[in-house]
Input
Amino acid sequence: MTTTQTAATVPATSAASRTAGTKQVGSTGGTTTLGSGATGAAEPAATRGRTSIADTVVVKIAGMAAREIPGVHDMGGGLSRTLGAVRDRVPGGRPNVGRGVKVEVGERQTAIDLDLVVEYGVAITDVAHDVRENVIAAVERTTGLEVVEVNVTVNDVHLPEDGDEAAVSETRVA
Output
């Protein structure tokens, strides 16, 4: 038995502004069903049933793939990074790998928006290119969804002295 699905079209705009026929997700959202699945004992075992992927799965995969790239210091805007830093320091708190990731998932396609903080001195265009390639490869490989676009926004540059507490506490006079 052959099943045919129609691909959802995702327009080439930011994922935050797309709404037609798709679900928009930050850290919570719906579920996308891949394949309607066949039923009955005559069907091959691999095709019996449906596969559903929660939208947060796409968010986490994209977030992990983006963080793997050298030159990416952190993800998210200023307020989300601040709240994330507080959450990370709370005992028992888990880091939010979906921070800075917004996805929109259709029936067969997805679009992803990423907010990045890059390290000072790296070529931003090279980092953005590498992030796009890694995110697309990871999402398509693990979910089977076609990634139509990955929009990268660089919100900040992490300077070497930003993380050094010693540099802050030094005084000019003895």
Observations:
- Helices lie at 55-67, 78-89, 124-143, 165-169.
